[in-house]
Amino acid sequence: MEELISLIESGKFVKGSFKDKEDFFKIVSDKLFREDYVSEKFLEKILDREIVYPTGLKINNIGISIPHCDSEYIYKNGILIAIFDNPIQFNRMDAPEELIDVNISFVLLIKDKETHLLALQQLIIFIQSQQFDNLIKAESQEDVLKLIRG
User: pLDDT tens for residues 92-111?
Assistant: First the structure.
């Protein structure tokens, strides 16, 4: 879990309400751009990718999304974790024509493919763990890290 922990430590945490996924992506992209994590084109590219490859999943009755875009639009590695006060609808990864309510989003900001795959593997292990169900209650990046570390 070391790669996942490192990416979360170098990433961001957001908790709040958003009108929809476009509003969420715009607000998060602006924040990430201002903090030199991503390029100006990040918003456009993550929205485009979400249309072609939806990222919504249902795990243990919790809706999650794992959006990302091509590495050329990423300047710093990290994972932005967002916990929504009110669920946001995303198209399902496994049934793109269906919408699901998402409570938690893991925005992957990863520059190289090897790190990307390792982070995804570790994220899936965490999502399948008992600690994951408590993530919805997290109020900070530190809370998330405590849960992952067990």
Answer: 999 999 999 999 999 999 99
Evaluate whether 110 touches 71 at the Cβ level (below 8 Å): yes
pLDDT score for 59: 87
Confidence of residue 150 (pLDDT cuts 50, 70, 90): confident
Give exposure, 35-59, as e/b (b: 16+ Cβ within 10 Å). eebbbeebbebbbebbeeebbbbee
Q: How many CA within 13 A on the CB side of residue 93?
A: 12
CATH no. for 2-149: 3.40.930.10
